Amino acid sequence: MQALYGQLLLGLINGAFYALLSLGLAVIFGMLNVVNFAHGAFYMMGAFGAWFLLDRFGIGYWGALVLAPVALALVGMAFERTLLRLLAGLDHLYGMLLTFGFALALQGLFQISFGSAGIPYPVPEALQGGRNLGFMFLPNYRAWVILFSLIVCLLTWFAIERTRLGAYLRAATENPALLKAFGVNVRLMVTLTYGFGVGLAALAGVLAAPISQVRPLMGADFIIVVFAVVVIGGMGSIMGSVVTGFLLGVVEGLTKYFYPEASSTVIFVVMVLVLALRPNGFFGKAAR
Q1: Region label for 286, one of left (φ > 0), alpha (ψ between -120 and 50) or beta (otherwise)
Q2: Tens digit of pLDDT for each residue in 246-273?
Q3: Taking the domain 2-118+137-277, which CATH number applies?
Q4: Rounded distance, CA 60 to CA 63, Å?
């Protein structure tokens, strides 16, 4: 049973990262209709940002948790203003190819600069150690990652689905011309939305830094699985990304316990079944 609970804990941790990363993807796709393949690269840059702040400026984990996502959000906004905006109005395939090439370029640049080996990042002192629950040992940092990711996901859902700003964002995707007629700066909203999605990816990278070593290809390991999570939950669905991310993390953990050979493919099997039976995903809207 300890092995089973350990795999469930690992599944929840992976699910927290799946939810946070797929949430950023869902925000960008749902609001901007951009398939952002650079999301994994921004996740990697968030982890490197945390390491850089600690190594060069002595700014620890708690400062990096704020500064790295903000800095990467600004990078994302600059990317949207200078490159993505050139493809506005064209087929989604062009944006996907642009972000895919951008991600490969970033990964190659970081590999040349830092090599392929991982760089360790320490767990913050306040979150070291763990608690003995009787049936398993729960590391404090793992519990923090799960709780903090869930809080961020729920706050993001509330901001988009239950506030006036979120209503403006949804209206900008449905009828931007009408929103402009009411005096709303739609272009600025698009830029801020992309920056926010990138900031979520960078935040996930900072959270991942103490768990997995900081390395250039850490985003490439996650991005394909995260896209599968987004498809299963429903493209552009905020709540679908959150629920599906945590749920599939648990499914993956259970599979590692009962049938380890299938743990790396179970999410993609679920994706195939969902696409065959419900192409719009569990929470997605039917395509018009």
Answers
A1: beta
A2: 999 999 999 988 998 898 899 999 999 9
A3: 1.10.3470
A4: 6
